[in-house]
Fold:
Amino acid sequence: GENVEQHPSTLSVQEGDSAVIKCTYSDSASNYFPWYKQELGKGPQLIIDIRSNVGEKKDQRIAVTLNKTAKHFSLHITETQPEDSAVYFCAAHFNSGGYQKVTFGTGTKLQVIP
Amino acid sequence: DAGVIQSPRHEVTEMGQEVTLRCKPISGHNSLFWYRQTMMRGLELLIYFNNNVPIDDSGMPEDRFSAKMPNASFSTLKIQPSEPRDSAVYFCASSLETTNTEAFFGQGTRLTVV
Structure:
């Protein structure tokens, strides 16, 4: 099955700096890669996603890049703010028998220091 | 829509007791997922339903766990008998299609088995 590795497990940055979280996946059939943000006491919430036919996607301060050849994708947050502090999860989707299979990364706890 | 609604938010029960977690997916969504989150194992997919039918229950840890979806607007996850190692946060999520789409998570149920 699919294996998703996520690094780092924890990340501390100064407010205003950039943060980068990386994920690798094993199944070349994976074709959809969402990123979720989980705040304390809440469920994960989608912040950005990318499909396998796209190399990069940006939404304001957040961007995601995908390298299909190397089978890795990254989340980039620029000009970090204290409210960006949360746990971030990557995920990889692939289709099996007409249904989706989803594997999540182990999460990255991001702390933005004011 | 109010989003995915889970109940209860918190549950404390004694070992050996039956526990039932409930979920109301977003109206119109045809896929429903149950996840378990722990510090040690991260987010684990337990089971997912498509059009009320269980498609993949390979993540259900053992026979003590069972899940049902009697209609498109309600699902339950039952643990009988419960054990301390079942303590975790259980999330329900729903999505609009079966493949390559965002999952919307509920707020989760924090289960503590003493």
